[in-house]
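hi! just following up on the protien thing from before. the input was this:
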Amino acid sequence: MGRFSVAMAKADREFSLYIRRRNADPHTGRTQCATCGNHEHWSEMDCGHYITRAVWVTRFDPQNCWAQCRGCNRLENGKPEQFRRFLVNYYGLEKIQSLERKSKRAADNRPSVETLLNIFKIYRQLNRIEIHEF
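and the predicted 3d structure came back as:
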């Protein structure tokens, strides 16, 4: 595995952990799927992306991501229409339209290894600060 792949895997792992735990109940660890509304423990959820992970500029944007059950994320292709509705209800239409515009402007800008390692460090630190006892 090359430097880029290793850095990407590290950044993805920490970012995913942050997203899945971000809105979990601090006592039970359960969180809501953005698309079907089911509640599961954060460790049983995926980090779902409204705008696909292939779009680099929004891949690590927390407003683009939410905990999503594995069925919706993997078997139902992320249910983008339902995901958008959820995000609009949570963040507001203007923020989601801004996210969509952002994704169209720079879809091919691959991050550098250094950028990915910085993302890893930021979310690793956030994960340490926001550790819940489940």
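DSSP finds six helices and four strands in the chain.
Helices lie at 3-22, 56-59, 70-75, 80-91, 93-105, 113-129.
cheers
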